Amino acid sequence: MTGKWDPQRRAVLKAGAGLAGLAAVGSVLPFRAARAAALTVGFIYVGPKDDYGYNQAHAEGAAALKGMDGVTIVEEESVPETVDVQKTMESMINFDGASLLFPTSFGYFDPHILTLVKKYESVRFEHCGGLWSADKHPANVGSYFGYIGMGQYLNGVVAGHMSKSKKIGFVAAKPIPQVLLNVNSFLLGARSVDPEITCQVIFTGEWSMAVKEAEATNALADQGIDVVTCHVDGPKVVMETAAGRGAYLCGYHADQSPLAPDKYLTGAEWNWAKVYTDMIATVQAGGTIDNFVRGGLADGFIKMSPLGPAVSDAARTRFEAARAEIMKGGFAVIKGPLKDNQGNVVATEGQAFVETDVALESMNYLVEGVIGATS
Amino acid sequence: MSLDTTLPGSGTAPISRPVLESLARRAESVLLPFGALAVGLGAFGLFLALVGSSPLAFYGLVYKAGFGTAFSWENTLSRTAPLLLAALCVALPARLGLVVIGGEGAIVLGGVAAGAFAMFATGLPGGLAIAGMALLAAAVGAVWIGAVGAMRYYRGVNETIASLLMAYIAIALMNHLVEGPFRDPASLNKPSTAPLEEAYRIGSLPGIDVHWGLAVGIIACLVCWVVMERTTWGFAARIVGGNVRAAQVQGLPVGRLLIGFTALGGGFAGLAGMIEVAAVHGSANASLAAGYGFTGILISFLARHNALAIIPVAVLLAGFEASSGLVQRRLDLPDATILVLQGFVFVAILLSETLQGRFRLFRPEEWSRP
Q1: What gap in Å lies between CA B166 and CA B240, rounded to an integer?
Q2: How much is the pTM?
């Protein structure tokens, strides 16, 4: 890559060369130093980076790196999970000299990242989603993810207090394990407050489909549901529609409180800023990022939006207590006795699945109390 | 073009008069769209300047990222591959006077068909498997878009609306199939069909990192051009496009032509879906709905539904799209910039259609008139 014309690197090299006129001995040293300092990191998002959701959460993480010494950030938004993303990654490598890439969408991994890891062995690929496994994938790709289900559980705790109709709602994209865990966690959080509460889930079938999200939210409101959360890429439509219908909101992915400050209770947010800063610091210190990185609330991978003005004192107390419990570690949302909404036992008395349990990653059920179907 | 230097009536023209006249007639269909392209690019440059960005820097980057380096060409040509077949799905019916804009539906269903074929017909030799996937995908696409032609012919259903709505149905059907009957149970968080066996994959062209879909697309465009311009079927199809009544009076099989050519277009779109699965994705999933079918509409219209012209136009638009990333990164412009540019070019070329026949330069029969 050193042969590529790169104004920034050249500037750094020039400066380095000027300073090191004396360094006939260490002619390699300033060059190496310049290389290490000029770390170019590429971020790729599947949607707009101001979507109040998944992509914004990553973009905020990337923004946190901009102040770091010797780090250049390049970003590209709305890159589909096709040959497009492969070429975007290659373009960042070829034109910008990026040596660390964060293609953030789940669908970028297989086959797109996996195609490129073989071609660019000196580049490090970091994928959000947790698909890396040592026996299948090379060492220059890694994955990272957070246990955000706990955040939805805490959302549920607040929702359980604030709901008057005892009916809460969830607008979800697709009935896949990650989403199902969020739906179940939200309901179980609410039921930890009041076991009578039910949660209606509506699947839109798409990660980003504003019209269906609005329809689903309205359908929830029509049923008298008074607290709404969601798991779609950009929660903006759900939040604004639900607020317009007078429902309280629990956020997801990023902080949506600016959309409806009075109605926003709290939200389960990614804290990529911490994750990314740590990773870059590791690289700059000459280390290697672990190939498999995971963390939850206690590790700072996840955070909760500040509680909104509408949250009652009782809810606040309960929320703080539940959060403290989770921060201790080993907390299980899915624990027996528990049935799914078809009547099948999913956890027997005494059985508990803590947040790190891999069994949760193939979840295919909705727990009792959730109204809706996985297919 | 040396038209200006050999003005009509000069008598001593170096080229004989009939050749010149035929050149002038043909020049219109080349010079007008290129002129419109230049106007579109210029107008967008002006727009950029108004919002405070340098048009020169912008076009410099577009050139660099789209066509400036070997990698840029790989980037552009990789994006061109699916667009060629997608554009044919618009261009072929258009020559019969049908505006079919739902090629996306045939693409996703073709992809699902290919994925399903690979899932259930395992252990075949590579060539046979690829042929099977291609045929099945093309057949599914042909039925899907052919149905649009049939509804148009037998029931008078508007083909534009029908094909668009059917594209939404196709995407829903694809989601249902890859999340239901055809789902690989191992694809947890991204429902997909089972990964294709290695022998079932389509590789790259020799010497360049672009998959075989590009060659297939170019060959398809050439074949379609020959069929449309140099065969009696194509001639008959163009008559139907010109005037259905006249075609009927002449005894042309209007129904068969309508359904046949819409099905052929759909077949190409289905094939595009299969190539996406076999060359890019390695399984069928929701990423198939990437909008190639819709970009194909733009390309076909810009190429004035001429199968040969589709090739350069597709390369040009793919080059624009290839440059989108660098433009975002270097000039800090939003990702929609290239879309706006495409819009400017599209409008300019559509407007240029109204200028057809307005320039005497292109109308030799009027040259002698004062």
Answers
A1: 24
A2: 0.86
